[in-house]
Amino acid sequence: MKKNITVTMDRDHSLLSVFVLKHPSPPSAQYPLGTNLLGQDMLSRILCGGTIMLQVAFLSVLFCFMIGVPIGLLASYTGGIIDRVSTIVMDSFYAFPGLVLAIAIAAMMGRGVVNMSLAIAVVYIPSYFRIVRSQVLTIKELPYTEAAQAAGARGRTILLRYILPNVVPSIVAVATVNFADAILTAAGLTFVGLGVGIDVPDWGWDLTQGRQLLPSGAWWVITFPGIMIVLVALGFTLIGEGLSEILNPRLEQ
Q: Is residue 9 helix, strand or coil?
């Protein structure tokens, strides 16, 4: 006898109120993408989970910008011991695979959108540092920058008025690509149990549940979230590559 399943969604998109467990239902007219083990509509979970993924990716890129860019500007412009120490610290992060480093940090910080975003940001901050540093080392030797220095302009004025505007285009292009990488990393963290939380719709958690249900033939639980992750990551990657070609014409040569 078929049992009714009651699922409610709260303001935080947490699908919590599930009263009866049953076998996942395949895609149908009522549930276009099927249901999972708890009887939750996969289409609703994918839509709600997408907002979580975008929040995590946006915050991680924002943290990278807020931390990596100022350090890169300061270290490369001042030079000396600050530049050497900053470069050594940032290069040390490359000793660890990105996902492994994010897993270690997420395990220490715990669950949550902000903690998850910070764990991902630590992986990509060295990339921002390197890009900014290389750009600044080139720009500060250009004639208009040297002229500003000769005219007595302060270092802060030179950084903000002459150097930073020329660095931003490269940062924007890299940030778009890192947005796609952040989504993949966030899905990986949730897949290993270090995501936002099992009570929150999340594509990575759906992959985990789908992997467990795959032997029973419930292919849709893992397929549709996986497709969404690939499409969103691919879309932002293509946007980032397009921006790189537009903002950096020399890449086409």
A: strand
Domain range for 108: 42-247
- The domain that holds 91 is classified in CATH as 1.10.3720.10
Q: Is residue 120 in a domain?
A: yes
Asked whether residue 26 is domain-assigned, the answer is no
Please state the length of the chain. 253
12 burial level (CB within 10 Å; 0-12, 13-18, 19+): exposed
Q: If you search the block for the tokens 């630590």, which residue do you land on?
A: 122
Per the DSSP assignment, residues forming a β-bridge with 35 are 41
CA distance 97 to 184: 14
Classify residue 250 as exposed, middle or buried by CB count within 10 Å of its CB (0-12, 13-18, 19+).
exposed
Could you report the per-residue pLDDT of 60-104, keeping only the tens digit for each? 999 999 999 999 888 888 888 988 998 898 888 888 888 888 888
The amino acid at 42: M
d(CA 16, CA 197): 12
Q: Each residue of 200-213: pLDDT tens digit?
A: 788 888 888 888 88
Spatial separation of the C-alpha atoms in residues 37 and 105, rounded to whole Å? 31
pTM value surpassing 0.85: no
Q: How far apart are CA 66 and CA 189, in angstroms?
A: 23
- Residue 12 inside a domain? The answer is no
In this structure, are residues 40 and 21 in contact, taking their beta carbons and an 8 Å threshold? no
Return d(Cα 45, Cα 212) in angstroms, integer.
17
Amino acid at 90: M
